[in-house]
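Structure ticket #2291
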Amino acid sequence: GCCCCCCCCCAELVARAAQLGEEGDVDGALEVTKQAEAVGRQHDTLYKQLTEPERTMTVCDICGVFINSTDNDQRRLVSGAGQGGWFPLCAQGAAEKTQLL
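Resolution: structure written out below.
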């Protein structure tokens, strides 16, 4: 089910390797075959990363936003605008809960 240019490139390389083999250029055919295999492996790796990313989602205790495990450190910082706005409210809510208990 993939329709990317890597598949076309791989098919072209395989066709070129077959042509070289028919012409008697065995070394050239082997080299192009290795290139086709490398393109195929690279395609498979990238396709898997894009369609099945290994990530988990957690919820921020302060503002309730979803935090993705693949987010960079900048996005994970707790000094964002959302954090700054929600933190005082959460602290006040926690204090009120404690007083009620």
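Closing remark: The helical segments are 5-22, 26-51, 73-76, 81-100.
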